[in-house]
């Protein structure tokens, strides 16, 4: 069975797990439907190849967080340097959409 067929039959194949630190302040915005969201810039170690294992490279990714998830944590807790564990899905446009399982790991 192909992935597209499985997705059409209701099987959830699209899951994302990412841990890192908040690299910038949360940015309130609106999604393409006009609903309020917060964008988080998450930084994480990401070696490009075996040649870079001695020096860890850092990458970043922007995460779209729906308002109910942001409200659950409170924007005061979502500050630069806080460790975070994101769960969610890749969107059709190639972005990342966080879900309700997203959690702060600790506070700086």
Proportion in β-strands: 35-45%
Q: Based on helices, strands and strand pairing, what is the structural class?
A: mainly beta
What is the mean pLDDT? 80
Strands of the largest sheet, in order across it?
A: 1-3-4-6-5
How many helices? The count is: 2
Helicity, as a percent range: 10-25%
Low-confidence stretches: none
For the terminal residues, how far apart are their CA atoms? 46 Å
Any overview of this molecule?
- The structure is a single chain.
- The chain is 12% helix and 40% strand.
- The protein is mainly beta.
- The longest helix has 7 residues, at 67-73.
- The model has no long low-confidence stretch (mean pLDDT 80).
What's the short version?
The protein has two helices and seven strands, in the order H-E-E-E-E-H-E-E-E. The chain is mainly β. The model has no long low-confidence stretch (mean pLDDT 80).
SSE map:
Elements: H1 3-8, E1 16-22, E2 27-30, E3 36-45, E4 58-66, H2 67-73, E5 83-90, E6 96-98, E7 103-104
Supply the key terms.
108 residues; mainly beta; five-stranded mixed barrel; 2 helices; 12% helix; globular
């Amino acid at each position: 069975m192909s992935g597209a067929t499985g997705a059409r039959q209701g099987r959830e194949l699209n899951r994302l797990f990412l841990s890192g630190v908040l690299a910038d302040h949360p940015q309130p915005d609106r999604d393409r439907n006009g609903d309020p969201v917060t964008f988080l810039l998450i930084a994480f170690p990401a070696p490009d190849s075996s040649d870079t294992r001695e020096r860890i490279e850092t990458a970043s990714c922007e995460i779209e967080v729906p308002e109910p998830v942001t409200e659950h944590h409170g924007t005061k807790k979502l500050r630069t340097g806080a460790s975070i564990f994101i769960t969610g899905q890749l969107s059709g446009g190639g972005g990342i959409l966080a879900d309700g399982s997203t959690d702060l790991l600790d506070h700086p």
